[in-house]
Design goal:
alpha/beta, six-stranded mixed β-sheet, four-stranded antiparallel β-sheet, 10 strands, globular, ATP binding, ATP-binding, membrane, AAA+_ATPase, transport
Length: about 220
């Protein structure tokens, strides 16, 4: 078996609220193999987003070990975690968070140029991704000119723009109607598999989770 792209050991996260300690994660262990798409299933408030923030190296305050591509993130300084995130991770959120003053192509070009890709290469990559998601006729449309499903597909293309080894998706179709959700998720899964990326997808939807390679359930702060 390949070395896991993600390895979590004893991951814990607690918060203080109203003078009380709330244990959101109570010792999570998880390995995700390269190219594997894992559904993180659990009801709202179960800690799915907190776990994705941990894996995404987006905030501190966690206990335990987080290894990305074999590198122990908790041992790195802030700039080292930023490098690890830039080199290996892509993100899709429930709300697209597109830049409103940029068109679809520019929204996908931007993260590539930040990573040092030349504009011509970035533009070619952006157009290819958007076309594969059925947006070849919407390349120059701004977010306000796109439907909710189209906006989320642009967000998917943006997440995959820098060819991440792992995509983290937090309820990526939770803001869409059922028909559009099914379509966007299908395109997301097809594109992630085609790119050879792994993915950890948080959802509360059993039916959507069943379309992924493996389902893990977050309950009472641990995985079942």
């Amino acid at each position: 078996m390949n070395k896991p792209i993600v390895s979590l050991r004893g991951l814990k996260r607690s918060f203080e609220q109203g003078g009380q300690r709330i244990d959101v994660l109570r010792g999570v262990d998880l390995d995700i193999q390269p190219g594997e798409i894992v559904a993180l299933l659990g009801p709202s408030g179960s800690g799915k987003s907190t776990m994705l923030q941990a894996v995404g190296l987006l905030e501190g305050g966690f206990e335990g070990s987080i290894a990305i591509a074999g590198e122990r993130a908790e041992k790195l300084p802030p700039d080292g975690r930023t490098r690890l995130r830039r080199e290996h991770l892509g993100f899709v959120y429930q709300f697209h968070h597109l830049l409103p003053d940029f068109d679809a192509t520019e929204n996908v070009v931007m993260p590539q140029m930040i990573a040092g890709t030349d504009r011509e290469t970035a533009l070619e990559r952006a157009q290819s991704l958007l076309t594969s998601l059925g947006l070849g006729h919407r390349l120059t449309h701004r977010p306000s000119q796109l439907s909710g499903g189209e906006q989320q597909r642009v967000a998917v293309a943006r997440a995959l723009a820098n060819q991440p080894t792992l995509v983290l998706a937090d309820e990526p179709t939770g803001n869409l109607d059922e028909t559009t959700s099914d379509t966007v998720l299908g395109q997301f899964l097809e594109l992630v598999r085609g790119e050879g990326s792994a993915a950890l997808v948080a959802t509360h939807n059993e039916r959507l989770a069943s379309r992924m390679d493996r389902v893990v359930r977050l309950h009472d702060g641990i995985l079942a």
